[in-house]
Amino acid sequence: MPEKHIAWIPGSTEHELSSKNRQVSLVIFYLSLDADDKDTALKEFSIYHTNSFIAENLKFIASKGTEIEQADSPDLYAFALSFFKLLPSISQDMGFLLKMLAIPNDARLHPILAYLQEHLHENLKMPQLAAHFGFSVRNLSRLFNESGIRFSYYVNNLRIMRAIELFADGGRTMQQIAYEVGFATPNHFNRVFRQITGVSPNAFVKND
Prior knowledge:
Blueprint: E1 5-8, E2 46-49, H1 52-62, H2 74-90, E3 92-93, H3 95-98, H4 110-118, H5 126-133, H6 137-146, H7 151-169, H8 174-180, H9 186-197, H10 201-207
Antiparallel strand pairs: 1-2, 2-3
């Protein structure tokens, strides 16, 4: 999870949260929603980008203690519940992040995907990856395909996610970030960033 993003995780969904952002502060809210709630957006895993309005409301709700009970604070409870239900309509849905969050069906891919995460700065190619983990290129390609993961697209998404984390850390130029996340040239970084997010890296940072 990059800084200034929210993950909405429906109940009974297996998940794991992590971030390499040095400044990230993870805050978790647990909500009890009506089983017959008709808002389908609340029943799907989503990642949202925060803004100042959302951030201030989250701080306000968090400041009211570790638990908000309907019986004890009905007005505060109603406000908090309504705010979270409104998130899909007041936040920018970061759909591009969801495209890379595939959970592979085959457990043999888990260490491979973890390896990709740790070696983004390298020139990652399928043949070298297959040899490293003892697969033929054909078999490894089949594993990715059967899990619905396109290798090059997945790697590019990981690199853009890492770039967003580095934006928040500060202290680096856009060119330095491009090289650090594994792009050969800043122009290639800019092109892929725009393809995935819909905006340029500079525009993304300005709107952050």
